[in-house]
Every structure is written in C-alpha cells, then in structure tokens.
Amino acid sequence: MTNDDSLTNTEKLEQQNPGMKTKLRLKQLKDQVIVITGASSGIGLVTARMAAEKGAKVVAAARNEEALKDLTEELKEKGHDTIWVKADVGKEEDINRIAETASSTFGRFDTWVNNAAVSTFGHAMDVTVDDMKRMFDTNFWGPVYGTRTAVKHYTSRGVPGALINVGSLFGDRGTVIQSTYASAKFALHGWTESIRMELEKEHAPVSVTLIHPGRIDTPYNEHAHSYLDKQPAHSRSMIYPPEAVAEAILFAAEHPKRDMYIGSQAKAITMLGALFPRLIDKLMEKIMYHSQHAERPSKPREESALYHAGYGMHDRGTNKGWLRSRSYYTKATKRPIVSAAIVAGLVAWGMAKRRK
User: Fold this and answer.
1) 3-state DSSP of the chain
2) Rounded-to-integer distance, Cα 321 and Cα 238, Å
3) Beta strand 206-213 pairing with 293-297
4) Which of 36, 94, 108, 173 could form a Cys-Cys staple with 273, CB 3.0–4.6 A?
5) Which residues form a coiled coil (predicted)?
6) SS in 3 state form for 90-117?
C-alpha cells in the first residue's frame, strides 16, 4: 500500500476496501511517468514525443543506445523529463532493469507500454525455427515480461496504473508471408485477454488495454527480417500515421479501455473474419502477396533488426499506398457515446429520406 497524496478519494476507498468494485481512475498524463519500449523509432518514438509534450515523464527503452540518447537530448532541450534505458525486451533481466531505473529516477511508473516488435517476411516453410523463436522473444515474451513487471508494481503500490500492449491487425486475423509475426501477435492477444480477466476477478488496480493497429507508416518493414526477393513494404492499401496509434495509446493511459482499433480497416477485417472466415481467407490470399512488398530488391537479412538494433530516430517508413493523415474511426471510439449518437442520427436521417 502507499500513502501517496495524489490518490483520489475513490482510490483511497479502494485501498481500505479491496473487495469493492469501482471503476479505475487513472492519472492525467501530466502527472504520469510512462514507460515505452521500442521508443527509438516508429510508433514508440512518436508516442514518446507526444507523451512528453503532454507533460508526462518518459522512460524510453530500446536496443539502439545512440538513438535513445538523441531522443532524450531532444526532449530535454524542450524542457521535458526523460531518461533512457538500453534494453532488449526479450530478456527478462532487461525488463526488470527498465522498471528499476524508472523507480530509482522518478519513484514509480504509472503506465507501461509494451510496444517493441519486429517482423519476418517469408513463406512459413522457409523461415527457420531459430528466427521464429527469436521473434517470439521480442513480440511475445517481451510483453509477457513487461506485463508481469507492471502488474507487480501497481499491485504492490496499490495505486491504479495502465498496462498497454500493442498488438496488430494480424493478431486478430492471420496472413500470408508474415506467419510468424501473426502467430506471435495472436499469442500476445490471447495473453492480454487472459491476464485482463484474472486481474478484473481479483479487483487489481490495473487497466489493461490492447491496441489493434492496421497498417501503419513506420520503418517496421525496413527493420524486418526478409526472406523475400523484394523489399517488404505496405503498398496498394490504406496506411495510417504512427500519430494515430500514439494518440490511442495515450488516451488509454488516462482512460481505461479494453481495446482500441487503429483505423476502420483493422476493425472491419476482424469483424468480417469472424463472420465470414473463408471469404476473408480468399481475400487475403488474393491481395496480401502483392501488397506486402515494394518493387525494389530486399535488403540482406543480416541488416534486419531481428537480432540487433535497427536504425533509429525515424518515425516514417518508405511505404507506398493511400497514406492517411489520421484515423477518424479511432477518434470516434474515444467517445463511444458521441459516435453512437452520430451513427443513430445518420440511420434516422437515412430512414427519413427513404420515406420521402
């Protein structure tokens, strides 16, 4: 338990009556310490910058030490409290070191974001088992270690905190060419749902959110381990900016949310896949082979970020497609009552037009 003066009356009551059921109250970002893994590029980099701008103290973790130093210097020059921790999330001792650094520097952390990830592009029977295991170290075991560390921290303090796991569209729906990535994200989604139910049953002071990004314009493809002749890339499709994901992550840091989908694309394919699985199988077979690479040679596998840090301080990739500036669907899901009212209004308007 803690005597933290920043606790709300509701939180103090929850401490005094552990069995009582009340909605978790998370701190505002300006009062938070937020841990972000994979903070040296892409979604993690954008989230770190956005969190700092909103007043949060940022603990940036990644394998790329040089990029972390550059990010920390950039944020400190703007007056933000930031520290960095070089860490490989696939190693439990590194995850523990992130938590220890956050606690020794800021006394605590209030949100933990499991964001670090890497992919492998190649036919399932071509990818080596060693490469599969290495990817699971980062994409599955990393979030598991992070989850366990965050939950222990929040429950020991008795103060509500947020755990945010960044999943994927391909954690809801399998795909060709990225079979190992999809499998690791399926595992992460299952882990997140399971631990959420256990924590709710125990009335633990932990908000658990799963983020479901669609295709995002980051260096994710450039960092990938590729068995393809052509360079992995998002192409011929709708592609959302990393800011849309960061916005969802930081909303979940302040407001308990079960799931947040980035783009109607991610939500639609998940729903249609559940309702019409064979139809979506055929659709994925038709479009996913040619829409996951660019028309240029693939980088050598030894340059990938699977076994060592990729290049940092880049938030965008070299993807070609319909590059969106935002996700209106994600913005709408932040205010479900308002969005439901809008939909109801549109339905009523449509029915009225049909009667004329």
Assistant:
1) CCCCCCCCHHHHHHHHCCCCCCCCCCCCHHHCEEEEECCCCHHHHHHHHHHHHCCCEEEEEECCHHHHHHHHHHHHHCCCCEEEEECCCCCHHHHHHHHHHHHHHHCCCCEEEECCCCCEEECCCCCCHHHHHHHHHHHHHHHHHHHHHHHHHHHHHCCCEEEEEECCHHHCCCCCCEHHHHHHHHHHHHHHHHHHHHHHHCCCCEEEEEEEECCECCCHHHHCEECCCEEECCEEEEEECHHHHHHHHHHHHHCCCCEEEECHHHHHHHHHHHHCHHHHHHHHHHHCCCCCEEEEECCCHHHCCCCCCCCCCCCCCCCEEEECCCCHHHHHHCCHHHHHHHHHHHHHHHHHHHHC
2) 6
3) unpaired
4) 173
5) none
6) CCHHHHHHHHHHHHHHHCCCCEEEECCC
Measured in degrees and rounded to the nearest 5, phi and psi for residue 34 equal -120, 130
The answer, yes or no, to whether residue 172 has pLDDT greater than 90, is yes
Closest to 305 (Cα-Cα) out of 291, 317, 322, 290:
317
What band does 93 get if pLDDT is binned at 50, 70 and 90? very high
Average pLDDT over the chain, rounded to an integer:
88
From 181, 220, 240, 261, the catalytic residue: 181
Average of per-residue pLDDT across 271-288? 92
User: pLDDT tens-digit profile of 94-123?
Assistant: 999 999 999 999 999 999 999 999 999 999
289 is catalytic: no
Domains located in the chain, CATH noted:
9-325 (3.40.50.720)
pLDDT at 11 over 60: no
List residues bridging with 260 in a β-sheet: 211
Q: Are 334 and 251 in contact (CB under 8 A)?
A: yes
> Residue 93, class by beta-carbon neighbours within 10 Å (0-12 exposed, 13-18 middle, 19+ buried)?
exposed
The pLDDT assigned to 213 comes to 95
Query: Closest Cα partner for 113 from 57, 199, 44?
Result: 44
